[in-house]
Amino acid sequence: MLARVIGAGVAGLCAAYALAQKGVDVEIVEREASPGLGCSRFAGGMIAPWCELESAEPLVATLGEEALGFWSHEIGVATVAGSLVVAPQRERAELADFACRTSHFETLDAKGVAALEPDLAGRFETALFFAEEAHLDPRAALVALTERLACMPNVTLYLQQDAAQLATAPDWTIDCRGFAARDALSGLRGVKGEMLILRSEEISLSRPVRMLHPRRPVYLVPRGEGLFMVGATMIENEERARVTARSVVELVNSAFAIHPAFAEAEIIEMGSDLRPAFPDNLPRLLKRDRALYINGLYRHGFLLAPALARRAAEVVVNDEYFPEVMDAHSDQRAIAGRPRDHAAVAAAGTGV
Amino acid sequence: MTDPVRLYDVALSSRLLLGTARYPSPAILAEAIRASGCEIVTVSLRREAGGARAGEAFWSLIRDIGVRVLPNTAGCRTAKEAIATAQMAREVFATDWIKLEVIGEEDTLQPDVFGLVEAARALADDGFKVFPYTTDDLVVAERLLDAGCRVLMPWAAPIGSGRGVNDVFALRALRAHFPDTPLIVDAGLGAPSHAALVMEMGYDAVLLNTAVSRAGDPVLMARAFALAIEAGRAGFLAEPMTPRDMAEPSTPVIGRPFDRLA
Q1: CB contact B64 to A (< 8 Å)
Q2: What sign does the dihedral B209-B212-B216-B217 (CA atoms) show?
Q3: Which residue from B28, B51, B210 is facing A239, i.e. has the nearest CB?
Q4: Residue B52 and residue A336: Cβ atoms within 8 Å?
Q5: pTM of the model
Q6: Which tens digits make up the pLDDT trace of B26-53?
Q7: SS3 A295
Q8: How far apart are the CA of A191 and the nearest CA of chain B, in angstroms?
Q9: Alpha-carbon gap, residue B179 to B210, rounded angstroms
Q10: How far is B204 from B196, CA to CA, in rounded Å?
Q11: Active-site entry in B15, B46, B90, B99
Q12: Helix pair angle (B113-125, B79-93), 10° resolution
């Protein structure tokens, strides 16, 4: 059986890997000169299924848990050092809300924060620590995954190729084009995100730090060698590659609020792209005849791609059916809210 | 429609207006709008427009919900910026309604009332039907009416704070001074009881965003606010009793010839 995966971003490469492991012959077709040049390039790379519960449906956490083992053990590119969530003193209500909506964390006091991240000592009186979460460098991760695929005899990668120009027809087409698949998928929209990469030798962090704020929440992900990814804006427009002055100010300002040393950091890169999302912001596997679309990963590309890839491979090889990602009206996608955990509010100790 | 509210000659049966920002997803936003029965939603344009009106995908999702759109100028800090955003909004949503925000201070998101009056006058002269987001200041309210506004939207507390009514006397004074102007409490409410309170005070409607969008269950909270607003409005129309200092037996006391009067 031959499957042609279109798009070599995180969704496409994970799908190719899952299919190839099941013995399917896989062609990966990418229009760019190398894999991972689409929006995967600008990802935060936080494998944080429980933190994401703050605004995502439980399905995102359920699928996302599968990504922890995949990136940290199977591909071996993720560091499991947890995530730290903090808030400025006057925004402690945000921390209480975050605690209500998430799970798998412990509440730290100032000493606990200092023990985990010495450079943040004295800066935050309380924090939430999600010990089981992980982080990775998206670009390095996709290089590693591409190398893994290159070693598999049943995988071929075609770069700078337009899938429409290929003469032969595969048994299956796996469409992983992200926002570019909008021509085929009604309801798909782009949600703009902007990010920065900063370099500072004055501060070191061992894990992602999320700083909550009602209008401009931000996260910092350490990438090693003094590099930090700062992300990300969420703007409901489809303007791909324009980073605005206001967004840069907000991102830098928030990084500065986490640690003043970032004021003197070097701006290495500014990036912007579109997250592909359906109206419920949940991912979908859409089967149309012998084509399977993997799309709508929204802000959760690295978190959701492994679980979707496994399901896609089961669909192709064993004709399986996964209502939670294949039926837009499945109960498991229920979009109503989640029950609030009042005990967690008390545990967060914010007195709100 | 038994008790409609009239905003610029449009009669509406729902007295709840919803903002569309910061919901977990557009699908949850749509559900919340349906659950609340609201007939007007506000949509921001300034940042979403980008360089080339790139917000069209989200705006068309909003249009498809089928309720009246009140575009807003959230994020504008000068009269000039707000006027330009209003003009773009008129084209994008084919409406002359505009919720006018000119923000003067970043920490409290307090309106710049001087810029607000200036922009309101220019927009009203240009044919816009202006819904100004203002403080509870009486004199500013007068100036906005002079500038051509026929609806006022005073805050209860700073945007997104969820504090409820900060100055109940100021809101009462506004209501008493402008008995015939539709008054909509715009910002700062957090719980349904806050909305019931301002409706009992005779406010005509309530606009909410954060209190619903950031609730644990936005759909259920939208419904809760709708019920509170309906209850508060009915309570206002029903003319509440005047509070008294002493107990007032609800059944007549028989066999006590003299009440203690002092």
Answers
A1: no
A2: negative
A3: B51
A4: no
A5: 0.86
A6: 999 999 999 999 999 999 887 777 666 6
A7: strand
A8: 9
A9: 28
A10: 11
A11: B99
A12: 40
